[in-house]
Amino acid sequence: MEGKKGLIVGVANEKSLCWGIAQVLARHGAKIAFTYAGEILEKRVKPLAESIGSDFVMEMDVTDDAGMDRAFEEYKARYGQMDFLVHGAAFSDKTELKGFYYNTSRANFKMSLDISAYSFTALASRAQAIMPSGGAMLTLSFYGAQRAVPNYNVMGVAKAALEASVRYLAADLGPRNIRVNAISAGPIKTLASSGISNFKELHKMGAAGSPMGRNVTQEEVGGAGLFLLSDISSAVTGEVIFVDGGFHAAIMKPEGE
Ligand code: NAD
């Protein structure tokens, strides 16, 4: 990643999946700008950025088009072009991340899809304009996009839209050597995942039901991020790569294992 620079949207604290990606990218020489959403998070994101040598931290709420334009202007003014974009923004009303999916309200459906799915397209649109020599974009998904996972509810629908966006964006941008991929990560305890009712159970199941018999780490998500954002994966696009210890690939482990 030496000589590459980019933007990471989705660090809230040291447990964030995006922070796992940021650390690995920085270790491999990337120059990174960060955004945060809200004053409380600024206090957490700034010291994290500084710890990996970045003093470039901007406020950006992904529901605010004018604010996104301002952040990209600032990025352009400081870094010029962009080589990579990482998107890890997601949000839903936690009172609806429990019980039946059919109870989802129109207002929360719109908000969840806006923040957790549309925002990637809105960022990609602005990022592609400053990727004249190609680049790579990455977002974060979960298996609830492809199977109904208890309590994940409208977030699963948002992740399905997000994964479809990855394919459409990859088709749009492939001719310009801009690749677009997603990592579907196994359950990890973070601020966002704490909003899912009974997440503890999901976390336990993630370990018990995966061929590797354990949950994954932030660092392992970071490793896959490094692969997808670097030139090593130069022919990979439109893909959703699972970093889940194989959970999605198996229904039972061999007996005695
Ligand atoms: P997190 O809480 O650390 O990150 C979520 C991020 O979304 C935060 O940085 C938050 O500021 C940002 N965000 C929310 N609303 C926003 C808005 N309006 N504008 C800008 N940013 C906004 O939690 P995380 O688990 O690291 O989540 C990162 C991504 O990884 C999410 O897309 C999540 O769905 C996905 N993911 C998480 C897990 C898991 O188990 N933790 C598993 C698979 C995928």
Describe the protein's architecture and organization.
This protein has 257 residues and is α/β, with parallel strands linked by helices. It is built from 7 helices and 7 strands, in the order βαβαβαβαβαβααβ. It has helices at 17-27, 39-51, 65-79, 106-128, 153-173, 199-208, 218-229, and strands at residues 5-9, 31-36, 57-59, 84-87, 135-141, 178-185, 240-243. A 7-stranded parallel sheet has the order 3-2-1-4-5-6-7, sandwiched between helices. The N and C termini lie far apart (39 Å). The model has no long low-confidence stretch (mean pLDDT 96). The structure holds nicotinamide-adenine-dinucleotide (NAD). Nicotinamide-adenine-dinucleotide binds next to helix 1 and strand 5. Nicotinamide-adenine-dinucleotide (NAD) binds next to helix 1 and strand 5.
Brief rundown of the structure:
The chain has about 260 residues and is of the alpha/beta class. The protein has helices spanning about 15-25, 40-50, 65-80, 105-130, 155-175, 200-210, 220-230; strands spanning about 5-10, 30-35, 55-60, 85, 135-140, 180-185, 240-245.
